[in-house]
Amino acid sequence: METMIDSMELVYSKPSTLTDTVMHYCPGCGHGVVHKILMEVIEELGIVEDTIGVAPVGCSVFAYMYMNIDMQEAAHGRASAVATGIRRVLPDKYVFSYQGDGDLAAIGTAETIHTVNRGENILIVFINNGIYGMTGGQMAPTTLAGMKTSTSPYGRDCATMGTPIKMTELIANLPGAYYVTRQSVHTAAAVRKLKKAITFSLKAQKQKKGTCFIEVVSNCPSGWKMTPLEANEWMEKNMFPYFPPGDIKVPQELK
Amino acid sequence: MAIQHDETPKLMKGNEALAEAAIRAGLQAYFGYPITPQSEILEYLSEHVPKRSKAVILQAESEVASINMIYGAGGAGARVMTSSSSPGISLMQEGISYIAAAEIPCLIVNVQRGGPGLGTIQPSQGDYFQATKGGGHGDYHIIVLAPNSVQEMADFVFEGFRLAEEYRMPAMILADGAIGQMMEKVYLPKEGSLPHSVPTWATTGKPKFRERNIITTLHLEPDKMEMINLHLQDKYRKLRAEERYELFNVKDADILLVAFGLTARICTKAMDIAIEKGLRVGVVRPITLYPFPYDIIASLATPNRVFLTVEMNAGQMVEDVRLAVNGKSPVYFRGRMGGMIPTPEDILLEIEALAEKHHLVHQVDNSTGRQLVEKWGE
After folding, report:
1. What are the tens digits of pLDDT across the range B256-279?
2. Model-level pTM?
3. Which of A39, A55, A58 shows the shortest CA–CA distance to A47?
4. Cα separation of A30 and A122, whole Å?
5. For residue B71, which residues of chain A lie inside 8 Å, CB to CB?
6. Burial of B328 per CB tally in 10 Å (0-12, 13-18, 19+)
7. Which of A51, A80, A82 is most worth mutating to test chain B (most B CB atoms within 10 A of its CB)?
8. B338: left (phi over 0), alpha (psi -120 to 50) or beta
9. What is the pLDDT of residues A120-154, one digit of tens each?
10. Which DSSP category does A144 fall into?
């Protein structure tokens, strides 16, 4: 086996910025892909020694077990405040927070908006799958109208439960936001686009241009009670019309 | 630790002396939110730091954000401080629990006001329980220092940073609106006498030569979570070596007043008047409210002695006094609440009533007056 591998040309490997720990994510979940792309970019940019990540509370609470870099695990919703604290005392380092929709758009709304409003030089990665995955499939701030969850068993009634919040559009209105985009990871082409967005965002951090905000519209096969394929199809059909992928605020140099 | 002081004193507000001391102690980052009666701390730092140091001074969107910025910046190895007053400190409790669990050193200042609820902006000691018993969720404690003068507002910044960094835990200066607002003579601590280096556990970016540093408070395995709890409890036991208190005239006292912060100051005045009147009265002033100086109080408890605890609350520290006394002496309580401050005369009336009740009226030689038996750092 070893000989066979020796004689072959290595064309792809896992980035050294990912640990060997087996991820706990469900089959088909987008988290693993986003983790990998983020870590791949950090390795490619050669900024491993200068990057500090902040994990949220939610499905990606254990992000620090998979990302082989210095990391802090924040309280629920506070990742961008924690990232602010880190970036302010280490102004020449790269700092990112990685947060889900419940963390960023419900309990952490104030921290998110004010972090971006101050134009903190960090990257915020926002995973939006419209559900609380970790706690077992409850309604999220981004749960679609009519969507059934364990706490909206008859479907989300916007009259009493509010409408799904378009956090990324809100963020784009703030002058502190430098680059705001919505991406996905359900196809190879989408993954390549996300990688480009992450690369641009981290490079921008060096120039201290303000906050870069990347929403990744993702899935939750377990929470949505679908197979991974069904989940991706459902996401395209139902999530994308309401959360359309694409750039929302693009700096001049990227145009 | 011997703090070096300026040779000439200044006349300063407690809050401003504290802020100035923080700059001199090498503060690297402050995150806070305005609230009366402590906004002068944020204001002073906002005015003076840009002219004198590279420290980060950031007015956050809330106390919730402030304490989590402290978590991030402290976790990145910086010397960090936040300040607030009672309602704001309540908002920080979640973050303080995380910081205690993650073992991040930081200094938290609580210039207490009367509560509960929005309460009043007048001074109070109503947050004793919250400060000394943990405050947030889970089994944890923070170091609590109770200043009773503008001088101590300045000195305890140095002491607070030192203790927090040595024991890797939050330290709190538990002051009150009166100490924060009053102006007094202060010999400011000299700059540069408190060394600081970035700790090895800090998340500053992972170099090739070491494993990644992770700051987390999540340990799903119960056996590991218990190990972490045992470690914290062990640290709190070691912290008892840092117990601090002042004792006045305790040796022959029939009545021992126990009070902290502002009320300790008022109690020593009441003691002076009582001594002049021929009563044998002493004062025990806990300075570290956590670790609480149980042993010294226990050693002073005898059947022929009466304890009177005086606080600006409904009776909080008195529970610790009773634990220490353990039934060996009667323990009484006198408190004012909601921003009211007891006067020396109020306390004297209590002393005289207790003296009569317990037949403690002695003819004593009062020519020596107030005698400080023991003082921290001397």
Report:
1. 999 999 999 999 999 999 999 999
2. 0.95
3. A39
4. 22
5. 72, 74-75, 78, 82, 85
6. middle
7. A82
8. left
9. 999 999 999 999 999 999 999 999 999 999 999 99
10. P
